Each structure stands twice: as structure tokens, then as C-alpha cells.
């Protein structure tokens, strides 16, 4: 078997076109939306996620700014900046790029972001809303994975899904969304992590296997049930000299898994574009919530 590649580019372009219409209506009212991305302790070359989010926002007429802090920054300095951005009427969306250096408490700083501007859906108030199935900001990557699965698999009711990785931004929210009691969802979800025993045999139970562990090419065909659909969330940038580089790979060993799975998302071009599409959709929601939708 050679698995089909599940590209996200087409679906992402459709979503971005719908979002663009909303931003055009906002611009016609004389409003220029603002997005602030706060990073701590970045490399001088910058972060590819931050670049693609800023670019996507700017293409929609959004004023995107990146607030960079050194890795040695203090809790008070970060707190002050996030509170300042939360109060700034020209900033409609705030992203705090995770993970933070270990001396900074992520939970506290996520609470520093005004919930209405929390386009990553990680403020406890927004987390509470999505856990209860209520409307509000939800993390973009799991929304993107869900949309890809809906388009490829259709109704997910009763499907056996295994997610490897329980991060607050990918695995955990995805497990909640997939198991929601809603038409088309209602999947049976197993959430795995570094303490899961016999991961290979648990993963092999999956009709749909989602991998978000942050370890390059860690998942081989031994983890995959024949015919399964595999979603690779991981992204690893591999430096290569120009003109070719850099290259990107996922958490899945594509050559190995493609011989067993029925479909696999490629890296790049699979989940990544979907994340960006849902992020700008979340930003449109945030702008309309603050400025009124018309
Ligand atoms: N495509 C996109 O748009 C997108 C968006 C976000 C992230 N990513 C990428 O996705 C990957 C994961 O990111 P993340 O932020 O979710 O990662 P993370 O916060 O580092 O969490 C990794 C998770 O994987 C688990 N894990 C690590 N090694 C494992 C192993 N050997 N067996 C089983 N579980 C293991 C960890 O378990 P413990 O909880 O027990 O430590 C943790 O739950 C990264 O490559 C990241 O760059 C891509």
C-alpha cells in the first residue's frame, strides 16, 4: 500500500478566502485590526511559526507586530507587556509563543492575556468554555486537524482515534474536540504521552493516529495499523545550505509509514497551513467580538 497524501493547502486556502471576506468588511468600516505576537528567548534567525503567522495576518490587512523579549526576561516585565497589550484598543489578538523558558510561569502569563484577545484559546476561561463545548476561542492546530479529518474521513462517530502527545496546544484540546457529543464527532479517543505503556500496541489500535510529540521521524510503520489514517503534527526545521534549504520533516517517518497507512499528512503542507488558516479565523472572531460584527 502507498498512502494518499492529505494536503492541507487547498482546504486552508478555502478557509482563508472566507476569512478574507470578513477582513474586507472590517476594513471597509475603517478599522485596521492588530495582532501582537510575544516571543521570549528566540534565536536570532527568528521562528518559522512566528514568521508564517505574521505574514498570513499582514496579507489580510492586519497590523502584525512581534514583541521580542530576551530569554533572561523577568516575570514582571512579561506580565506588564501582556497587560499593556490587553488594554491596547489597536491590538485585537495576542499570541504568547510557547514554550516559555522554565523560570517563567506559563499559566500565570496565559492569564495575563485578555480572554477576548486570546486567539490561541489557552486562557483558562477559554479552556473552560471549549471543555464544556461552548463557543469561544479554540486552539488553531486541533481545529485544523479536525477539519482535515472531517474532509477525508467524513463522519468520525465511533472512530477509534489515538493521539500521541498531550500538550495544551495540540493533543489535549484535540482529544476534547474529537470526543465532543456532537454530530460528526463522538470519536473514541485515547490520549498517549511519555508514560504510556506499550505505545506501539496502543497506537496500532487506531483507525486514526495523530502524532504530536516533537521528535523527528519517531513514529514508524510499527506503530500503525494497516489502512490507518495518520496525521503528523510535528515540524522540524533541518538547516541546509542555500539554494535548497532549510528542509522540514515531521514526527512521522514518512517513508516507513506510507507503506502501511491509507493516508498521511505531509510535512510541510499538511497540518501547518491549516493551523495558520484557523489562527486568522480566530483573529477575525476576536476583531468582530471587539468591534461588533456587521
Ligand atoms: N503543524 C503545526 O501547526 C504545529 C503546531 C504546534 C506544534 N507543532 C509541532 O508539533 C510537535 C509537538 O508539539 P507540542 O507543542 O504539542 O509538543 P510538546 O508540548 O513538547 O508536547 C509533546 C508531547 O509528546 C509527549 N511525548 C514526547 N515524547 C514521547 C514519546 N517518546 N512517547 C510518547 N509521548 C511522548 C509528551 O509527553 P509528556 O506530556 O509525558 O511529557 C508531550 O505530551 C512539535 O514538533 C511542534 O513543533 C506543529
UniProtKB/TrEMBL annotation:
NADP is among the record's keywords: yes
One Pfam family of this chain: THF_DHG_CYH
This protein's GO CC annotations: cytosol
Pathway: One-carbon metabolism; tetrahydrofolate interconversion
GO MF term list: methenyltetrahydrofolate cyclohydrolase activity; methylenetetrahydrofolate dehydrogenase (NADP+) activity
Tetrahydrofolate dehydrogenase/cyclohydrolase catalytic domain span: 7-120
Catalysed transformations (reactions): (6R)-5,10-methenyltetrahydrofolate + H2O = (6R)-10-formyltetrahydrofolate + H(+); (6R)-5,10-methylene-5,6,7,8-tetrahydrofolate + NADP(+) = (6R)-5,10-methenyltetrahydrofolate + NADPH
Protein residues bound to NADP(+): 165-167, 235
EC number assigned by the record: 1.5.1.5, 3.5.4.9
Every Tetrahydrofolate dehydrogenase/cyclohydrolase NAD(P)-binding domain range: 139-290
Subunit-structure text: Homodimer.
Family: Belongs to the tetrahydrofolate dehydrogenase/cyclohydrolase family.
Protein name (database record): Bifunctional protein FolD
Originating organism: Eiseniibacteriota bacterium
Gene: folD
